[in-house]
Design brief:
0% helix, four-stranded antiparallel β-sheet, five-stranded antiparallel β-sheet, 149 residues, 11 strands, mainly beta
Length: 149
């Protein structure tokens, strides 16, 4: 039986409704899928707005990920320096990378030094004090946005 019209004054929203059947017209998210913005005044490209890789890791002990997405490995390159390799690589090295780091009892920062520290397959990150002196961080976080290959 098909439902063709709902009368607003006869609909009881406290009723339980069950649906059996197939939803048609629903498609997969594509590279051009858009969604309304929070305020509804414009739309945003769903795929372009997603983080393509992120990681939370500790440099002070086992140099391991607390958690990550699209990151295959973490390499310890010495005091305050780590290299993250991506599972699925970026289209080029022009992606955006944002990071922050923490170390109990010490102010630290995280950055990438020059274009040579970032490639489509991964990036090298440097944690240091404001002076700057390289030091291992115990709460390092990186998020990357860009186009995957």
């Amino acid at each position: 039986m098909a439902l063709s019209k709902i009368e607003a004054d006869s609909l009881d929203l406290t009723d339980n409704f069950a649906f059996t059947g197939t939803v048609t017209g629903a498609g997969a998210i594509t590279a051009s899928s858009t969604a309304p913005s929070e305020g509804g005044a414009t739309t945003t490209n769903v795929v372009q707005g997603l983080a393509k890789a992120w990681a939370c890791f500790d440099q002070t002990t086992t140099q391991s990920f607390y958690d990550s997405f699209n990151c295959s490995s973490l390499t310890d390159n010495g005091g305050g320096v780590s290299t993250i390799a991506y599972t699925n690589i970026f289209n080029n090295d022009g992606y955006s990378s944002t990071g922050m780091a923490g170390k109990t009892g010490t102010r630290v920062r995280i950055d990438s030094v020059g274009a040579s520290a970032k490639s489509s397959t991964g990036q090298q990150l440097y944690v240091s004090t404001p002076v700057p002196v390289a030091t291992d961080g115990d709460d390092c976080n990186v998020t990357c946005h860009g186009d995957l290959a």
